[in-house]
Each structure stands twice: as C-alpha cells, then as structure tokens.
Design goal:
This protein is of the alpha+beta class. The chain has helices at 2-27, 58-64, 101-107, 158-171, 190-208, and strands at 45-46, 49-53, 68-75, 81-89, 111-120, 128-137, 140-150, 153-155, 177-185. The radius of gyration is 17 Å and the shape is globular.
Length: 214
Amino acid sequence: MFKHSMRARVLITAGLLVAATALLHSVSHGERIPPHRPFREFPPVLGNWQGTDSPIEQRIVKAVSVDDYLNRVYADRSGAPVAFYVGYYESQQTGDWVHSPKNCLPGAGWEAASAGRLTIDVPGRHPIQVNQYLVKKGLDELLVLYWYQGRGRVIASEYWGKVWLVADAITRNRTDVALVRISTPTVDGEERARNRAVEFAQAAYPRLNQFLPD
C-alpha cells in the first residue's frame, strides 16, 4: 500500500513539474536573483553540536545542479551523529529542480519504510512542519527530516512547493529555494533518533534564516 502511494505521489509530482516548467518558461522575464550569504560561513558549532565538513564530489554537485551547498556531519557530546545537508538553488526557471529525498534516497539504494509529517517547535519563532522519512538499506536504518525553505517560507509538501514556485515567479520574479535535510541513524532507537534530529533542527533553523533570502 505504501509503495502504491509513493508511486502515485511520484506521478503527480512529475505532472506538476511538467506544468510548472511550461508556465515558468512562459512568464520568465529576467529573473531576480537575490544575494545570499555563502554556506561555507555557516557556524561549525551549534550549541552542543560540533560539525565537520564532508565535501561532495564535483560530479555529484553538477548532477544535482545546486548553486551552493552545505554538507556537514554534526555530533553532540555523546558522539551521536547528525548529517546536515542544505542545497541552494538560485533559480528553477531553467529546469534545475530541487531533487526530493523521496526520489534520491531510493535511487541510492535506501528503501522507504514510512513517511509522514512532523511539527517542530522553534523557540521564539512559529513552529515549522517538516517531512519525516524512515529509510532502510540492509541492516542500516536512517531517520530523515527534510523541508524546502526560501522566499520567506518553510514548506514540507512538494505539491505546495510547486504552487508557490509558480506564484512567486509571477508575482515576485523569483524561484530561489533550498532543500534542507537532516538524517541520523536509529541504532539507539527510532524515538531517540527523532528527538536528536528535532533538537538539531531547533538549533540549526534560526541560523538558516541568516543565509537564505526572504
């Protein structure tokens, strides 16, 4: 049942991409590319979390068409790791679409076990809704949180992401966006992994707003 639901989502998303591409090309008229702070300046220390950069091979960077990215592994005092990836796209009007983890992770051999939504409370800010994705590969299991952020919004839904993409292209002449992904192994249990990922998201999200243009 889950696999059938995933297949339907992929087909619907593909249809939306085709429609959005045609519409974006029809309204493109010198897109405005806002400046953003480079991710190499993102703090390597976030509270109790200490990060280490994990550069991505240039061929992969080229394949996913990101204009800037952050790929770093953070660990807390217990040593529990959290992988943090942000891929930033200055424009999507040329067809350089954000690559959804629901497509990329299965392509890398990870099998989807469950998917849903999670609301995260952020101190001093509005709560954010994100995707929660559990994937397995052999004996390995990862809990993944991800969302789309940019143009002053945090969006979990790929469908609404495309709707706002077209709306902002028409009204604001902008299509910039970032994919934000947090993943951590579940070796100490799914609940602890979720708590760890949420704690990291609460520490990282306020800083992200300093790097992504509203």
